[in-house]
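Justification of computing resources. Each target in the renewal requires a structure prediction run like the one illustrated here; the chain below, 240 residues long, is used simply to show the kind of job we budget for.
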Amino acid sequence: MRRGSKIGVLASGMLTLVACVVGAADVAAAAPPVTEPPVDDSVTVTGGGDVVDATPVTLPLVPVPVGCSAPRLPHIVFVGTVVERDYRTVRFEIERIRSGRSDPFASGSLIDVRYGLDVQYLEHGTTYLVAAVVDPDLGLLVSRVTPPIEHFGGDEVIGVSETDVDCPVYESPMRTLHLDGTPIEANLLEPFFSAKVRILGALLIPLAVAVSVIFLLAMFRLSLAALFNSIVSSGQRRLG
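Resulting structure tokens:
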């Protein structure tokens, strides 16, 4: 009798334990998973609650050392076709903007870029890849075909730079290239060779005019001398 009651108590305890385990498993399955908030690698929070900037995830291709000036970015980079030009400015028709913005320098799809003497290397109707910056003095978009000319002496001039930091050399942000990225041929003597007829004309026409004038003066002098001799001869015959 006493042994049967012990077995009954043990069985009921085991059933209670199994029910508790099953219930806990159901609760764990129904509860939502615990997620952690994303961590921003660019911001670090100190113990006092202050936000401190940290190293960003992506770094520039060419880091700027302390003491060096950052390179100037172009105002606009676009693919355009030359539709008009004068002795210093080229007007492009924008086909596609790669980066930046065209306002406030564009009128519709047309935009003017100042080149100065480099305008002679750009051909009418040809499409180029143009990177232009805003000139702080002129307030206009400017670009170049030839590489920029460094000032005489550069940083070696006394007073120009007071730092000994070895600053990296950046590519000029204002360059005009072919569509494949190759530089445009900018031979200083090319305009002379491409205008041989005009050069020969500029040299030969003044020479021909000078020779003609000398010939006419010589003929006029000979005519006067012949006229003078004939008058003297006729006068002598009359006197004789």
